[in-house]
Design a protein that fits this description.
The complex is a heterodimer of chains A (243) and B (311). Chain A is built from 11 helices and no strands. Chain A has 243 residues and is an all-alpha fold. In chain A, 45% of the residues are buried. Classes of the chains: A mainly alpha (243), B alpha/beta (311). At the A-B interface, helix 1 and helix 4 of A face helix 2 of B.
Chain lengths: 243, 311
């Protein structure tokens, strides 16, 4: 477990020290705050618009963190960073879990910063308390990082550096659109993750609370899917030549 | 029986290409062993298979056939890596981490107890003369500085075996000198060293055993002294002994004037008549000349071995 945390800490330190991350968070918060000016365009629904925008931007931030992971693993393999780490008493599976865990923590920190910033802007703009549903929906975006980052690890191991992020974006987009994919039972039935399970923007906008049991079950589903994707990744990675 | 820290038996590696039945054969039935306590130079031209062998030893590359044992364990044993230090050919590390943070990560992975970790990291930084850069980010380091940090992470765990891939690459002359001293110091502490290099003069200086590879085939392996010995004899003529000099000069393969005004003449060892003549002259006038066995330079031996190899 120590090895996994060590790899994860290296990963999150590496990403969270990039100044561009904080610039993007600032941009996201400026966009959230700008929703207040759209009272005419949104026909007086600027409050709902702000909630929706904050959730969409948080999902995009989560996606960007996962994409950065799909760049980082092949880059570490190519540049020899992975060789140095794997020359220590560290299993290849532990390396992959560490990378995924690091990605989840990085994403969670960034999404939490955007969520807290959005809550603050919402409170300042409308003088209303933050409802449980808003908190739950942002939490679900963070929880969606579990299956998403496992998918990122799988594609990073399977595919070349240039293709892995593209395929990850396409698959995550499909996975958020599982209603569209309902006609393709094989894909819908588990190969692709059903990330729509984590999408409750409408509930947040209309303040319809989500049962905590649902949040727990969907988290368990995310962990199971991540275990499945990581196992696949590990089978491939164990046989891979690290040049 | 001499214990070996590395045993490689019948190792072959074939890199397969996608959509092609043919592959590239990087190693072909390689068998070598490295005795404990030795400094072993692993030599060969580019594409000889040195890095592939080293990566197989570190379980970064899987062999097609054959086996590799390190410190008595199969190379895929994860726990044996606690006792090995490894420096890859072009060390690269996470750019956003400082040197100290990176070495701390390595120390944690090497399962160095937390109470000893800081001290061990500081000691390694001092050994490679990077203590003053400990707080700087690795992304700002030059190649030579990265190489030093690479060496530091390799010696963190006071390894029984150091495996180094081109460790002298990217170092300035001072760095090379310091690095050679580190290797010598490590050997004195009982560490066995296995390293690949293209800088033959350095290999000759610090190695006691070598192996030469070409296109994945082993050309020769053994003790350096034995491989380079008995290529001929050297005769040092005392200054003023012009008669002796003139008599021997005609048969000499080479001659060098010494700073004291005398001469050093070299002769092949496969001419018994000539050798007898020199020995007789030595008996006649013992003070006029001194005889010693000449040793071939590693560079000459390397080129001769590689160029004559039919692979």
């Amino acid at each position: 477990m120590n090895e996994i945390i060590t790899i994860a800490s290296g990963t999150w330190k590496n990403v969270l020290r990039m100044k561009v991350v904080y610039f993007l968070i600032l941009c996201a918060l400026v966009l959230v705050a700008s929703a207040i000016n759209y009272d005419v365009l949104s026909m007086g629904l600027q409050k709902e618009l702000m909630i929706d925008v904050s959730l969409v931007l948080n999902s995009i931030a989560a996606m960007l963190v996962v994409i950065s992971l799909t760049f980082e693993i092949p880059k570490e393999l190519r540049e020899g960073v992975a060789s140095t780490l794997l020359s220590k008493p560290l299993g290849r599976f532990q390396y992959l879990i560490g990378k995924m865990f690091g990605c989840i923590v990085t994403g969670a920190v960034i999404c939490a910063l955007i969520a807290v910033g959005s809550f603050f802007i919402f409170n300042m703009s409308f003088g209303e308390r933050i409802g449980v549903t808003m908190f739950q929906t942002h939490l679900l975006v963070i929880l969606a990082l579990i299956p998403m980052s496992a998918l990122g690890v799988l594609f990073a191991v399977l595919l070349p550096e240039v293709i892995a992020p593209i395929i990850t974006v396409v698959v995550v987009w499909f996975a958020f659109s599982t209603k569209f994919l309902a006609g393709i039972p094989v894909l819908y039935g588990g190969i692709l993750p059903d990330l729509d399970l984590f999408n409750f923007r409408a509930n947040a906008v209309y303040q319809v609370q989500i049962p905590w049991m649902y949040v727990l079950l969907v988290t368990l589903w995310g962990i199971c899917y991540a275990a499945f994707a990581l196992s696949l990744a590990s089978i491939v990675f164990e046989r891979k030549d690290i040049k | 029986m001499e214990e070996n820290v590395i045993v490689i038996e019948g190792l072959s590696k074939n890199y397969k290409r996608w959509f092609s039945s043919k592959g590239t054969k990087a190693l072909d039935n390689l068998t070598i062993s490295v005795p404990r306590g030795s400094v072993f130079g692993f030599l060969g031209p580019n594409g000889a298979g040195k890095t592939t062998t080293i990566k197989i030893l570190m379980d970064l590359i899987k062999p097609t056939t054959g086996s590799a044992f390190v410190l008595g364990k199969p190379s895929y044993d994860v726990d044996v890596k606690k006792r090995i230090g490894f420096l890859p050919d072009s060390p690269a590390f996470s750019r956003q981490l400082t040197a100290r943070e990176f070495l701390n990560i390595c120390a944690k992975l090497l399962r160095i107890p937390s109470e000893q970790r800081n001290e061990t990291v500081e000691e390694a930084l001092h050994t490679v003369k990077m203590a003053e850069h400990a707080r700087e980010k690795l992304g700002s380091f030059s190649r030579g500085m990265l190489q030093r940090i690479g060496v530091a992470q390799a010696i963190l765990n006071k390894p029984e075996l150091l495996i180094l891939d081109e460790p002298l690459l990217g170092l300035d002359p001072y760095g090379r000198q310091e690095f050679k001293q580190i290797i010598i110091d490590q050997q004195k502490k009982g560490t066995s060293v296995f390293f690949s290099s293209h800088i033959l003069s350095d290999v000759e200086e610090i190695c006691d055993r070598i192996a030469i590879l070409k296109k994945g085939h082993l050309l020769c392996t053994g003790e350096l002294d034995k491989l380079l010995a008995a290529s001929g004899i050297n005769v040092v003529i005392t200054p003023g002994e012009d008669k002796v000099f003139k008599e021997l000069m005609t048969d000499a393969e080479g001659s060098v004037k010494n700073p004291d005004g005398g001469w050093t003449l070299s002769f092949p060892h496969n001419n018994p008549e000539l050798l007898k003549k020199i020995e007789d002259m030595k008996k006649e006038s013992p003070d006029a000349l001194a005889i010693s066995a000449s040793r071939e330079k590693l560079e000459d031996f390397f080129f001769r071995t590689v160029e004559n190899a039919n692979v």
